Amino acid sequence: MSRIIPNISVDCVIFGFDFNQLNVLLVERKLIDEKSNKVLIDDWTLTGYHILEEEDFDTAAARILKKMSGLDNIYLEQFYAFGGVKRVNSPKDMLWLQNQSEGFSERIVTVGYFSLIDNTSVTLSLKERNVKWFPISNLPTMGFDHREILEKALERLRAKLRSEPIGFELLPEKFTITQLQRLYEEVLGTTLDRRNFRKKVLQMKYVIPLDEKQKGVKHKPAQLFIFSREVYEKTKTERFDFSI
Amino acid sequence: MSRIIPNISVDCVIFGFDFNQLNVLLVERKLIDEKSNKVLIDDWTLTGYHILEEEDFDTAAARILKKMSGLDNIYLEQFYAFGGVKRVNSPKDMLWLQNQSEGFSERIVTVGYFSLIDNTSVTLSLKERNVKWFPISNLPTMGFDHREILEKALERLRAKLRSEPIGFELLPEKFTITQLQRLYEEVLGTTLDRRNFRKKVLQMKYVIPLDEKQKGVKHKPAQLFIFSREVYEKTKTERFDFSI
DNA sequence: TTGCAATGTGTAAATAATACGCATTAAAAG
DNA sequence: CTTTTAATGCGTATTATTTACACATTGCAA
Which of A47, A82, B6, B217 has a CA 20 to 30 Å removed from the CA of B40? Predict the structure, then answer.
């Protein structure tokens, strides 16, 4: 095992969509005083870790994601580096870092990645620590500057969702148009007209209809579609409108 | 003077527009063997430097920009962090780093910023080293992985230019519509219809006409405009179209 | 005075966005 | 087995935006 680089880490903001809400995966940070049994810290953080000597940022982010979700080959994108002098300065944060086996440096730079997964496909399995999905609209108290990092990730996700077809990464391979619409509504915080949305999506040649229907729903089952990145890359056109 | 952090640096991609071309500011990297007078290295790099112990990324980037261009209060945006294991591995790069007074670490992470300035307003003044504007379309051989960093910056500049009004940062305070159009054409690599572009821009309430005309041109002088960020923030609307 | 090299304006056609209403389907309830 | 329920799926009229394209105007310079 190669050594870690003490002052550089990678934090992953793992977004998941459950057909209804946008969620983020957090890890519990709990510290109990051994003598008094007093709870010194109990809050939640993003999933991050130092990078290793022989490791790129992308590799480190993929490693962390794999460890947390068990998943490989997932959409991952670097979105911002955080290196403020006062990133880590609350008493709780200091206390936590002093208790970690790797020791700590006062000035830790972290590179933020966000990843998009269909969270109905994930079974949480990390044994050592408590890991949970939280809806974006109802977050717990978070440690370090992770709340700020999450906000930046969200901002980037929203901006990118408007201009590139990354929403599909949050859905299973086969999805319905209504599911896609819910996703856009939830992430962008709007409501959209069902019929117009459908019309728009059906124009996109890279959203391909299947000869297959939804199963196990208690109403008329909808048609399933898949997204083809290949077709997208071939047919995309760039436009510009720094909006009015 | 506080100490530098040896393994973290900031690199600035300084873009300038001269009403015709998009340019980038580079610094010559020249190393001559003292005995033989042989030229060991002669190429160009971005303007970067290690960050200081008590300094944020943003502050470091502003410091570097000030040193290179003499300018303060300039548009600056972090766009990507580079930390690949093999970022610095050519013999020339190693040689250069060994010759720098600060010493070097093998694994240097750099945080990339790009900045936008009206390059007709800058007088280059850095005495110690040779600094020059190069058009994007005609770049010299570049050291380290700076070519790659520049490409990423350009990609981000283009993406942002499509969706946000940052082009004005590349123009003087007062500009003509034709200048704005040339800027968009040059950066996005397209040509646009003059009349339609004008129509589009005139709709934008945040591009405000002045009672003032261009001077010193040998043809009909055009009307001048200014950009108001304040009006933009008030009137902007978000749309979404992950394009067809 | 005239030529030059820009700026400044208008209109028609095509395309895309928005606002709606109603028939259809499959499962569940009676 | 009929009805109810809760979705899906489709169509059309209206408005707004984008695109394509031609000619008159202005101020300087020859």
Answer: B6
